[in-house]
Amino acid sequence: MKVRDCVRSPMLEGSAKVLLLGSGELGKEIAIEAQRLGAEVIAVDRYDWAPAMHVAHRRYVVDMMNPRAVKSVVRRENPDAVIPEIEAISTDALEELEAEGYFVVPNARAVKIAMNRLELRRFAAADLGLPTTKFAFAENPEEAFEACEKVGYPCLIKPEMSSSGHGHIRLDSSSRDAAARAYAYAVSHSRGRSKRVIVEEFVDLALEFTVIAYRYPEGDRVATEVCEPIEQWRYGEYHYIESWQPPKSDPAVLSRAVEIGRRVAEGLGGTGIYASEVFLTKDGRVLFSEVAPRSHDTGLVTLVTQELSEFAVHARTALGLPVPRPRVVSPGASMAIYTDLGDVWSPGVCGLQEVLRIPGVDVRIFGKPWAYPGRRMAVLLARGSSVDDALEKVRRAAKLISFRPA
Ligand SMILES: Nc1ncnc2c1ncn2[C@@H]1O[C@H](COP(=O)(O)OP(=O)(O)O)[C@@H](O)[C@H]1O
Ligand SMILES: [Mg+2]
């Protein structure tokens, strides 16, 4: 990656170019931040008019699991930075591109480890010695049963590769048949053809943290900084619902979470941003769960809380610019808004007359061209006099949002 002192005009010779592989709502904010820094932005996704495409200079619709398609777009555009924005990307293509000299943010190895639950556990638990939930791996129904017995009940079976909770299944008691069925279910939801699963102890959560850490060039070394942890609550769902900053937890717990975030970022290396998901259990354990080598959905709250949002941090690290640690300048909260509409084109996100009348409340509408049940369409953001005040505002605003078919 190159350290940059000048930025030339976009669309002209010598422009600073970033290419997003994945153009969702997080990519849209990264694209906006990169544009603010004068960069040229190229948005790639598997469907047209994905959120970041609306704010990019150019767009491509390709299958990002296809290595030839990914390599072809990157070589054609020759960007200064390739930003993987989602997990489902051909990592072989990223490794090859990196070997050719392209800068993959934060690096291809980190992307590969983070998307694979087995490799990630080996890295975090065995190499770094971080505390995690108890776990075991399995590659057939019999091993799955043994893994459940070893880990204990309740336990959670997850495919080797998946995201957004796909293929997760909980087992509450010892049963060879139930373990075999759970194994088959998890494998059938795996990305790719993997037959491997992880079995994890199912812990009683008190809270979840997202710890944003990032690395940027500082003289002849790479500095690692960690933001104030974001706290989040999912109400028992796999996807994110509410997040807030500054954190309310005990300082001793927070410093353990920060330490985990720092060690993961330093262990995976490169230049860019890492979002570690950390559990606080009801019995007081602070456990590393997983890491995204990219911006995180719960980090949307940083748009209203931090001096530099996680997206600004991401864009700066990609462009080789300095990133002093952003302070939290206001208590704030976010709430993700999911639609219950069926397959609908051009869905209406409604209720804005009332929502935007609440002082301190803002909304980001992602502009996705169609809705399906459970699709995230927008996020509500609020600043408040305290986190509780901000949370009260987003909860009130969420009740006022509705969706209308075209
Ligand atoms: N071992 C566990 N015990 C309790 N809850 C869990 C466990 N693993 C995951 N969860 C819950 O499920 C959510 C999604 O799990 P995660 O492993 O992060 O999957 P994904 O990669 O799909 O995001 C977590 O944020 C947490 O709320
Ligand atoms: Mg997760």
Walk me through what this model shows.
The chain is an alpha+beta fold. The protein has three domains: 17-104, Rossmann fold, CATH 3.40.50; 134-201, 2-Layer Sandwich (Dna Ligase, domain 1); 205-404, D-amino Acid Aminotransferase, Chain A, domain 1 (2-Layer Sandwich), CATH 3.30.470. The protein contains twelve helices and 21 strands. It has helices at residues 25-36, 67-77, 91-99, 108-114, 117-127, 141-151, 176-188, 251-268, 302-305, 310-319, 352-355, 387-400; strands spanning 17-21, 40-45, 58-61, 81-84, 135-138, 155-159, 169-171, 197-201, 205-218, 221-226, 230-233, 242-245, 272-281, 286-292, 332-338, 344-345, 348-350, 361-365, 370-371, 376-383, 402-404. The strands form five sheets. Strands 9, 10, 11, 12, 13, 14, 15, 18 and 20 form a nine-stranded antiparallel sheet that branches. A hairpin with a 4-residue loop joins β13 and β14 (286-292). α1 crosses α10 (310-319), α3 runs antiparallel to α4 (108-114) and α6 packs across α7 (176-188). The longest helix is centred in the middle third of the chain and has 18 residues, at 251-268. The chain is globular. 48% of the residues are buried. The model has no long low-confidence stretch (mean pLDDT 97). Bound molecules: adenosine-5'-diphosphate and magnesium ion. Magnesium ion binds next to loops. Adenosine-5'-diphosphate binds at residues 133, 156, 162-165, 200-203, 205, 208, 234, 238, 277, 289-290.
